[in-house]
Structure formats: structure tokens, C-alpha cells
Amino acid sequence: MPAVTATRPNEDPRVNGLLSGAEWSTRDLTFSFPQSAVSYGSRYGDGEPQYGFEAFNPAQKAAIRDVLAGYSAVCDVSFTEIGETLSRQADLRFAESDLPSTAWSYLPTSLPEGGDAWFNNSRGIFDQPLKGEYAYVALIHEIGHGLGLKHPHEASGRFGAMPTSVDSGEYTVMSYRSYTGASTSGGGYTNEPSGFAQSLMMYDIAALQALYGANYDSNGANTSYRWSPTSGEMFIDGKGEGAPSANRIFLTIWDGGGVDSYDFSAYSSDLRISLAAGAWSTTKSAQLAELHFDGSEQAAGNIANALLHDGDRRSLIENAEGGSGDDTISGNTGRNTLSGGMGHDRLVGLGGQDRLHGGRGSDTLLGRAGDDFLLGGGGKDSLRGGAGEDSFVFESADQGFDRISSFNSANDTIRIDASGFGGGLAAADKLVAGEGFIAGADPVATEAEGTFLYDRGGGILSWDPDGTGAGDAVAIARLAGHAALNAGDILIV
Predict the structure, then answer these.
(1) Of 272, 389, 363, which Cα lies nearest the Cα of 320?
(2) Is residue 300 part of a domain?
(3) 284 lies in a domain?
(4) Residue 355 pairs with which residues in a beta bridge?
């Protein structure tokens, strides 16, 4: 067996509440599926091999390989499968026995049983582990013990219980609680059959990374994540990850780096998306896991973002694309690109230099802190840049009459796409007062050329594509508070 190290307590009680106090010294572990009870020897653990031993079937082996891949994706531990022999045993071993009524496993220890997991044989509970069902999450749970995680409601020496506010299957697969506030005794889990976690959850990931470090090579390039509205299957860069047993999404995303995207363009529901570390996103209520079979408790969301490890922002998801519903999408502290798609959407950039694109529909765009680009798109949109040097973008004169509620002439600009406005505009044109830009009370063009008109009394910016010609001016934006606007504030691109 590899050496075992005593774990140092973690200052975060939510992480510390999952640590058992023991961890493997190595980052390279082996695993196997013993074919005979003889492989375990005569003095082993609680004697599991002597009580109805049975080797894992192909479906169980495939599920274990999938779960271990999920572990190595989030923390700096590799797992190598070996063939079990009398002279060569793996660090982590998986088999069935009738001694456990459901399942159990051993924490890291130098004894032969260290890291091994056992699952009940005769009841058939674990014969076909399917993603989203109890049998599958039990595999994740028992491997967690094998790597040094404990139950969050239990205290062990310097490793106290986890705060009850995050002690549930929504935050850790090690929990005995189906939802926060549930009991840990009597009756067991109350989840619907397909309502269990489909992956390691955010505090499992944080605890494993506290023990073994984070894996930033996992999906470390520019990665796209999308989900099926009809099956719940996740696709990473177009490759399906296997559908859960029912149309539920209940998982946490760890991404190692790159400029990454959540793509929800296939959805017609009203999405609630957040890119903040530790936040939840909801695709639609029909895909939420029922955490109590009577329907009284639903999961906090469908998709959780992993927490930052030691404040490293590489794991943040940068971009999100909405669907055809009325979506709410918020960013994080990074540089985000948020696209609403169709529908009446609300986009919130938060920190960073963000690009917000409302798309079709009457949208609300809030840049908040940072130097942001706000493009309302079609419809009557509400644009607010917030702090920073913000750009309000117009791709054509007929994209809608928008309201800009925070324009500051000292910092902000209005960016005009010359190709979408016509009227002789060309990229890099410089507007000057009285030539291409006229401001005042009820301003009118004075030349037969495209002219921007700003009515200072009403705060209305218009575009007259032929100046003194027969065409009418088109109002493109209203600046709240009759904000000051000068020729130099308009940038032609």
C-alpha cells in the first residue's frame, strides 16, 4: 500500500467538514476489480470477501472508470487500472459482498483494506449504475471515502461537522441529506429515483483540491459546454458525455482554463444563468432534480460552477449564450461575453471588461464595474454601463430605440458601425460639431450628408442618413437625464 499522510485542517469549515484527517501521500493510484475473494487474503477488514463475494460486472466497471475520470479531472490524482493477482494488488479495489447492507469503503490507511470499496451483492441495487440514480452517486461517494473524505455531519477530532447550510447532496455527494435541513437518520435519502447528483459537487471538488491540488489541465483550452433540453445530456466541445437516466441536470462544472462558454441556445425556457464561482444556473424547472419524492424540495439549480481554488480565476467560465426565452444571465469577475439571443433578456456583466449583446427582443443590459461593451440589438433596450469607460454599440440605425441610463461624456462612448448606417459613413471618420454632428434644441441637418442629431432638451440621439435630403431622421437612443453628448463621444468603426 502507498504511504498515508495526516491531513492538515482547512480554515474553511465547509471544506474542513469533509476532511477525514487522512490522505494518500502519492498522486498516482492504481485500481482493480478482483475476480476472487482469495485476492484479499485471510485477514482483511471486516471479512467482506467471505460474505457472498462477487466480482463487478461490465456495467459496474464502466461506471467506476467514468467516476474515477471525474475525480482525476478535478484534482491532481491519476488512476491506473491493473489486473489483480495474488502478488500484485491495487490501491483501490472494487467488489461486491453481502456484508454491507448498501455500501461502504475504507479511508486511506496502510492496512490492506485501505481505499477499498464494497457494495451489496444480493439486493441487486448496484447491478446497473446509471448517471443520476442512487447506485451511481454511491460509487462517487464511496470513492470519496477512499481518497480521504468523510460524511459532513460527522465530526472527527480537528475536523468538525460541515455547516448545515451546505450539508446536502446539492453541495457534496458525501452528505446523508437529500436537501439542506433534512434529517440524517431514519428513512434515508428522499430523492426521486433519477434525482441524485451526476458528478462531484462544489465542496467535494474544493476538499479534494485541498488534499491533492487542482487539475488545471482538465478542459484547459477554450471549451464549450451545452446541454440537451430533452435528455439532459451534456456535450463538451460537441462530444456527448452520456445521458442521465432521466431528463435531469444536476452537476458541477470544473474547467481548468481557457476562454470557455455555456451554450444554452437550444432552450426556449426562461433561463437563469450565473457564471460566478459557486453559483447555480437553472435551465428549466422540468430538469430540476426532485430532492423529496413528494415534490416539496427541488435542487438549488441544474448546473453549479466550481469554487475557485486558492483564488485562481482560471477555472471561471467566461461566456454564456441564452436561448429564445426571457433569460437572466450574469457574469463574474472575469472578462465575460454574454449573449441573450431571442426574448426579453437581462444581462449583468459584474466585474471585468464585458461584452453584453441583447440580441432580438427588448433587453436590459447592465455592465456594472469595468470597461464594458453594450449592444442592445433589435428591440427597445435599456442600457446601463455603470462604473468604468463603457461603449454603447449600435450596428444599424433600425435596431431599435434604446434608453441609455448612465452615459458619462467624460468616460463613455457611443460606437457606430459604419457599414450598418450608410449615409456615407466610413470607419474611423471623425465627427466634429456642426459637421456630421449637430446638437441643440430640435436640431436639423445643414448639409446633404449623413448627420447625427442630438436633441439636448429630450436627450434623443437620431441619425439622418441624407441630411437635408427628403429622408427622415431615425431616433436611435435616449440618454437619461439629458446627458451631455459631444461629437467626440461618438466613435465610428
Answers:
(1) 272
(2) no
(3) yes
(4) 337, 373
Of 18, 11, 7, the residue nearest 168 (C-alpha): 18
pLDDT in tens, 443-455: 999 888 999 999 9
Cβ distance 133 to 198 under 8 Å?
A: no
What is the C-alpha to C-alpha distance for residues 480 and 474, in angstroms, rounded to an integer? Answer: 18
72 touches 215 (CB < 8 A): yes
How far is 342 from 323, CA to CA, in rounded Å? 6
* 21 in the same domain as 111: yes
From the list 302, 345, 340, 304, the residue with the least C-alpha distance to 319 is 340
Q: Which pLDDT score is estimated for 160?
A: 98
* DSSP sequence for 169-217: TTT-TT-S-SSTT--SSSS-----TT-S-SS--HHHHHHHHHHH-B-SS
The pLDDT-based confidence of 87 (bands split at 50, 70, 90) is confident
Query: Is 450 in contact with 436 (CB distance < 8 Å)?
Result: yes
Distance CA 488, CA 477 (A): 17
Which residues contact residue 38 at a Cβ distance below 8 angstroms, ignoring those fewer than 6 apart? 49, 86
Put simply, whether the predicted model's pTM sits higher than 0.90 gets the answer yes
Asked whether residue 195 falls in the same domain as residue 114, the answer is yes
Considering the domain architecture, whether residues 197 and 223 belong to the same structural domain is answered as no
What is the domain extent for residue 486?
395-493
Question: Which domain-ending residue is among 179, 209, 239?
Answer: 209
For the four alpha carbons of 94, 63, 208 and 88, in that order, the dihedral sign comes to positive
Q: What is the pLDDT of residue 187?
A: 72
| Residue 405, strand partner residues | none
Tell me the per-residue pLDDT of 175-226, one tens digit each, with 9 for 90 and over: 999 999 999 987 789 999 999 999 999 999 999 999 999 999 999 999 999 9
DSSP-assigned states of every residue in 117-166: EEEESTT-TTSS--TTSHHHHHHHHHHHHHTTB--TT--BTTB-PPPGGG
Residues 413, 337 share a domain: no
Helices within 323-476 (DSSP H only): 418-421
Residue 467 lies in a domain: yes
- Cell digits for 207? 476538499
Of the candidates 382, 379, 380, the one whose C-alpha atom is nearest the C-alpha of residue 366 is 382
- Domain contains 304: no
Query: Rounded to the nearest 5°, which phi and psi values hold at 25?
Result: -75, -30
Nearest to 260 by CA among 314, 319, 219: 319
Place of cell 502507498: 2
Whole-angstrom CA distances from 236 to 18, 242, 293, 297, 320 are 29, 11, 31, 29, 14
